[in-house]
Each structure stands twice: as C-alpha cells, then as structure tokens.
C-alpha cells in the first residue's frame, strides 16, 4: 500500500494521453456528447499530475498554507491523497461515463460540475495563498472544459433542468464534503501529533 500511496500519481500523464487518444480516435466523431463526458477524466488526470508530480507538493502546500500545520506531512497525508483522488477520479468519473453511454448521458454531467467546482477552490486558494499545485490545470483545463461541457449540454444537446440540478448537487455534495473534511476536521488535527 505504501508503494501505491507514493506512486499512483505517476500514472496520470500516461493515462491522460492514452485515454485522450482513444477518445479522439473512437468517440469524438461518433458521439460528441459522450466524448465531452469522458474528457473530464483525462483533464482531471492532468490536474492531478500538476498537484502531485510536476511541480507537485499539494499535500505539503495544503498542510502548511491552508491548515497552518508546522509539518508538511500532517494532518493531510499521502494516504488521504490516495483515498480522496482514486475513488473519485479513477473510479467514479469513468464509471459515470460508462453509465452515461449505457443508460443515459445525464448520468455523467456531474463530472463537469465537479471539475469546475474543484478548480474554483484552487482559484480561491490562489487569492489567499498564491500559487497552489493544480491551479494552472484548473484555470487552463478544468474550468474551460467543464464550462464548455455544461454549456453544450444546455444548448446543443440539452439535458433537462432536473438533470443539470441533480448533476450540480452531486458535484456540490462531493466537493462540499471534501472541503468540510479538509477545512474543519483536518484543521482541528493540524496541531496534534500524528
């Protein structure tokens, strides 16, 4: 498990490139709406690459700057980073795209909303703490691609208002839970020993 905690982010650029090539070759022309849903996953892998590999340092940044910890590795740990990122981006994002393909396209819209909301949290951190790992991908990929996807599904391939509201609420619930956990629960542990 320690190996996985240390090295899972290294897969992100390779997965992002591979899945993007597959999407462009096999999905883009066949089903543009589905392409946009699937695209949220490689976009987010680029975001994670910036957070954890190049330049990396998100755990350290969050502990020091946001939580005010004297340690770079506590209270947010590499274990936490694994169990936050992998279930959401490596499992839930692709699963939602598969369900969007098999059942209804609306089942994937929450990924675009989540990508936007999480990216906005990086922008918010920028105004308080300056550059933070994930900010560049947030500004150049997550927000534009997510916003275009929402726009596309509001205009060219309209989803019902209920589908948009449900997708937004799912994304908001996940992002809200992460923020409450990170900013309330973890901040309380910042001064405690590990």
TrEMBL record:
InterPro entries listed in its UniProt record: HXXEE
Organism of derivation: Thermococcus eurythermalis
Keywords carried by this UniProt record: Membrane, Transmembrane, Transmembrane helix
Presence of keyword Amino-acid biosynthesis: no
Official protein name in the record: HXXEE domain-containing protein
A Pfam family of this chain: HXXEE
Secreted among keywords: no
Sequence intervals crossing the membrane: 15-39, 81-103, 109-127, 134-154, 160-183
Superkingdom classification of source: Archaea
């Amino acid at each position: 498990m320690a190996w996985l905690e240390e090295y899972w982010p290294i897969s992100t650029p390779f997965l992002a490139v591979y899945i993007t090539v597959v999407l462009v070759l096999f999905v883009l022309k066949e089903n543009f709406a589905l392409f946009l849903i699937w695209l949220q996953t490689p976009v987010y892998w680029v975001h994670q690459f910036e957070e954890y590999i190049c330049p990396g340092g998100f755990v350290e940044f969050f502990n020091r700057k946001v939580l005010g910890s004297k340690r770079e590795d506590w209270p947010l740990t590499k274990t936490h980073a694994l169990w936050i990122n992998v279930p959401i981006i490596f499992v839930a994002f692709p699963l939602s795209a598969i369900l969007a393909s098999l059942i209804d396209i609306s089942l994937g819209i929450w990924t675009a909303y989540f990508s936007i909301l999480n990216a906005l949290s990086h922008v918010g951190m920028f105004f308080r703490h300056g550059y933070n790992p994930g900010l560049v991908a947030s500004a150049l990929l997550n927000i534009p691609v997510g916003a275009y996807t929402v726009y596309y599904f509001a205009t060219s391939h309209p989803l019902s208002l209920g589908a948009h509201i449900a997708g937004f609420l799912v994304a908001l619930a996940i992002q809200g839970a992460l923020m409450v956990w990170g900013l309330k629960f973890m901040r309380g542990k910042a001064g405690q020993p590990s």
